[in-house]
Design a protein that fits this description.
149 residues; mainly alpha; two-stranded antiparallel ribbon; 6 helices; 44% helix; 11% strand; globular
Length: 149
């Protein structure tokens, strides 16, 4: 388990320990006491993203809800905002949250948009096209390589 998680205060829910910050982000304004048992696989996968492969079946059997999707979006936003504090941890949490959202909902609510080239400028004028940040895309549950350029 990540050292950053170990240093934060913990909350025990249904005989499992989670970081208080994670539960607060997942539950939003509802508070740490309201984490439902059915959300435990998601909380566990985000708390320790290395466990995600072992929780996929439980996660895919979960009931989809507006509240769960909002929780996943909150985790993604939190991970992006705090990635400079503990890069490895928040990159893994972002990966876990986006993977879970794709598994359950088929697409990301906060998906990155492709940048469009401005008309009238060409590569001959000495400007190199900017490379996309993401090199992988997910479509229909399959991973495929996305060509940049």
């Amino acid at each position: 388990m990540n050292e950053e998680i170990q240093r934060t205060s913990k909350v025990e829910i249904k005989d499992r320990e989670f970081s208080k910050e994670l539960v607060e982000v997942l539950m939003g304004e509802e508070g740490t006491e309201s984490l439902e048992e059915e959300w435990m696989p998601v909380a566990e996968a985000i708390e320790d993203p290395d466990r995600l492969p072992f929780l996929v079946s439980e996660i895919m059997d979960m009931e989809k809800s507006k509240e769960l999707r909002q929780a996943l979006v909150r985790v993604q936003i939190n991970a992006q905002l705090k990635r400079d504090q503990a890069l490895d941890l928040y990159k893994k949490q972002l990966f876990a949250a986006t993977t879970i959202e794709i598994l359950l909902y088929g697409r990301l609510r906060l998906k990155p948009r492709k940048r469009k080239r401005k008309k009238g400028k060409s590569e001959e004028e000495g400007e190199e096209p900017e490379e996309e940040e993401s090199t992988k895309g997910v479509k229909g549950g399959e991973e495929k390589e996305v060509e940049n350029g």
